[in-house]
Each structure stands twice: as C-alpha cells, then as structure tokens.
Amino acid sequence: MQKLYIYIVEDNPLIALALREIISNMGHTVCGTASNYTKAVTDLGTMSVDLVITDIMLQGKENGIDLAQYINHHLHIPFIFQSSVTSADILTQANQTCPNAFLPKPVNKLAMIEAIAKIAA
C-alpha cells in the first residue's frame, strides 16, 4: 500500500485529532489541517497532498462542498467527505462533487480505514 500525505479539514478539534490518529496508525502522514475553507485552499495551494478528508459544515461562509468544487477544478486529487449532515439537499450537492467516499459522523474507524485503503491501493 502506498503511503499517502493526507490533509484534514475539520472544525471540531476532537474529531480532527481522532482522524489524525487513525491516519497515523495506518502509516500515512497528516501533512496539515484546517478548520475552514480559506486556510485549506491556501495550504493546499502550497503543499503536496494525496488525499483530503473534509467535513461538509465548516467555520466561515464556504463549506466542504465549496472546497470539493475547488479541489475538482484546481487540484484534481481525491477527497473524502465525513459529515453529520442529513439534509437531502446538502447531501445531493455533496454527491454531485463525486467524492471518493462519504462517511457519516461519528466516523466508523473501519470504514475510514477501508476508504483510505482504496485510494492508497
């Protein structure tokens, strides 16, 4: 399995920490984190990233769907949504961005491992 450099976009510090632990235990590297769209876009423009894991609801005006659209148009790298959103409209918008996986919160550790492993294969 290929070692990935993974960027986390999550505004809840405890969830970000849990994701970091799962990723590190898999042998991948968390190359950065952000709690909002603006910081994520700035960081992603200067880093070498293999995968982005993002929440849909973020601090600030833009959300994870906006970030996914940015990734699709400018970076062309895989991304995974992890979110507690249940709104059909928001989920439809999220799915239109073609994420590599969509994991409901609380994130199941095994589901996250499997989603990352598919990308690293």
Automatic annotation (TrEMBL):
Residues 5-120 form the Response regulatory domain. PROSITE patterns: RESPONSE_REGULATORY (PS50110). It comes from the Bacteria. The keyword Isomerase does not apply. The lineage of its organism: Bacteria, Pseudomonadati, Bacteroidota, Sphingobacteriia, Sphingobacteriales. GO terms for molecular function: DNA binding. SUPFAM superfamilies: CheY-like. GO terms for biological process: phosphorelay signal transduction system. The modification 4-aspartylphosphate is found at D55. This is Response regulator. PANTHER family: RESPONSE REGULATORY DOMAIN-CONTAINING PROTEIN (PTHR44591:SF3), STRESS RESPONSE REGULATOR PROTEIN 1 (PTHR44591). InterPro entries: Bact_response_regulator (IPR050595), CheY-like_superfamily (IPR011006), Sig_transdc_resp-reg_receiver (IPR001789). Pfam families: Response_reg. Keywords: DNA-binding, Phosphoprotein.
